Amino acid sequence: MCLCVISFKMAAVLLALTLAAPVLLVASGPVPDTNNGTVPLVLWHGMGDSCCNPLSMGSIKKMMEEEIPGIYVLSLMIGKNVVQDTENGFFLDVNTQVSMVCSQLAQDARLQGGYNAMGFSQGGQFLRAVAQRCPSPPMRTLISVGGQHQGVYGLPRCPGESSHICDMIREALNRGAYSDLVQKHLVQAQYWHDPLNDDLYKQHSLFLADINQERVVNETYRKNLQQLQKFVMVKFLQDTVVDPVDTEWFGFLKAGQAKETETLQESALYREDRLGLAAMDKAHKLVFLSTDGDHLQFSREWFTANLLPFLR
What we know:
Layout: H1 3-19, E1 24-25, E2 41-44, H2 57-67, E3 73-75, H3 82-91, H4 94-107, E4 115-120, H5 122-133, E5 139-145, H6 165-176, H7 180-185, H8 198-204, H9 208-211, H10 219-225, E6 230-236, E7 252-253, E8 261-262, H11 268-271, H12 277-282, E9 286-291, E10 297-298, H13 300-306
Helix pairs in contact: 4-5, 5-10
């Protein structure tokens, strides 16, 4: 393997460590399930995490089962075991991951009447891709917890900041994020959004540019996303991991510079309604929530008060 691939994989691991801050628990009309009247819930973890980590996804699954007795909760495993699941969050092509999940959901008899979905960090935008590409079985409500729907640009906190390691990773991604080699091997490169190289991003991003309709408008994507009853986005106001944090509400940096941000409503994506988000907003399907915590840090009380109502 050439040194460039090794260096990019090292960069991916370091970035993953920042984006994979473990979920910290400090302390829509449903589709009825024929067994117990609940709506199944599908979870997709963030990078560096796994389906079954007892301190993160395992804890969330257990909490949901306690709060909604009888609910079927599927915490997605991308691969044959927990080790593969974690590694695939670093290096398996996102489009392949989405296809794997679509197949898994289609074969799960307990989901065929519809399900709700909750994605943590990068799992948020990955589940949105599922909603856009795979309408059967139907996703009813999508909750994105710290998801990066316009991608990321920058590493505000990562190991070795004082030794300028973050700047080295930024430079590596800036110089090679949109090469075929890096796009195919590094998950975070597929949602790396460089506002200073907007044309490169639109032309070569294998995942984010596609699901955000940057090249062409796929009417199927637009139609499928609008089938959601609710699209809930959670922003962490003290987030030191995601840059810019506005991406958690579908905002981002304005093209051509890297300082000034714009909201979803100010973006061309919204004004041109390429994804149907403006129509969803007018229909009161978009929900913007925030919490004062750092990335993926919230209390059980906040979760129960703010997110549970969308899942009952």
